[in-house]
Amino acid sequence: MSLAAPLAFFLVLAGCASKPAMQNGIPVNDPFETQNRRVHAFNKALDARVIGPAARLASGREDRGPDGPGAMDPVINAGANLSLPGKVANSLLQGRPEPAIKNFFRFAVNTTLGIGGLFDPAGRDFGLPEQDTDFGETLAVWGVPEGAYLELPVLGPSTQRDAVGKVVDLVIDPLHHLLHRDAAWAALGLRAASKAGDRARFGDTVDSVMQDSADSYAQLRLIYLMHRRYELNEGGTEIDPYAEAAAVDAIDPYAE
């Protein structure tokens, strides 16, 4: 599968985008708000009834406390480790060899000394934290505009650019091509379980936004866009038309 199809999909959707409105002084391009709110209502109910309770139960953090080690920590570590080859590929596509090299060695260390990524000696002992990136950022580096805001079923907040990025990330992931089909599906399942572990780790923050906000849709949209635009402007490199405005008062939804 080539990149042409998802990029074409993005361009078609981008043509439907309207002029951004303002929310708390931040440009918000949300021409699909009616449909997005329907998806958000589904995601909110799913999180309250299934994802949130299951993640808390599986993690064991209710018994250990929010700062204690959770039962799913090895799963979170392993899932994050499996995402590193894709991050290496994206960094190279962005013309950024340094984070690609760091993620490569992090993957090598954690896969071997960390017993398949269950533990994190690369970060703990070798000073190699994860260099996060994705194909949505690659598109931004290439000059593709953000497009309209989207809320995706189960996956949650996104934009047209990042939605395409999520699809392409699956296609360009080296493990997807190197592993046997069953092993590739198992790796994908482990990465999904890792995300469930993250849901438990930041449960109080997610609950305060999803379940306690007067308008959880608008609140989640604002937090996502500000945080994402801030990420894309780290280091002072403006690769997003709204990044400068967002970086001033950026909100990190995972801040302690």
Any overview of this molecule?
The protein has helices spanning 4-14, 33-59, 61-64, 73-82, 84-93, 97-112, 121-125, 135-141, 160-172, 174-178, 181-201, 203-210, 216-232, 243-248, and strands at residues 21-23, 26-28, 149-152, 156-159. The protein has 256 residues and is mainly α. The strands form 2 sheets. Strands 1-2 form a two-stranded antiparallel sheet. Strands 3-4 form a two-stranded antiparallel sheet. Strand 3 (149-152) and strand 4 (156-159) form a beta hairpin. Helix 8 (135-141) crosses helix 9. The radius of gyration is 18 Å and the shape is globular. The termini are far apart. The model is unreliable at 246-256 (pLDDT under 50).
Can you lay out the helices and strands and say which pair or pack?
Blueprint: H1 4-14, E1 21-23, E2 26-28, H2 33-59, H3 61-64, H4 73-82, H5 84-93, H6 97-112, H7 121-125, H8 135-141, E3 149-152, E4 156-159, H9 160-172, H10 174-178, H11 181-201, H12 203-210, H13 216-232, H14 243-248
Antiparallel strand pairs: 1-2, 3-4
Strand order of the largest sheet: 1-2
Separation, N- and C-terminal Cα atoms: 40 Å
The oligomerization state is single chain
Helix and strand run: HEEHHHHHHHEEHHHHHH
Number of helices in the DSSP assignment? 14
List low-pLDDT spans: 246-256
Q: Please describe the biggest sheet, giving its number of strands, its sense, and whether it closes into a barrel.
A: 2 strands, antiparallel
Radius of gyration: 18 Å
Work out the helicity level. 55-70%
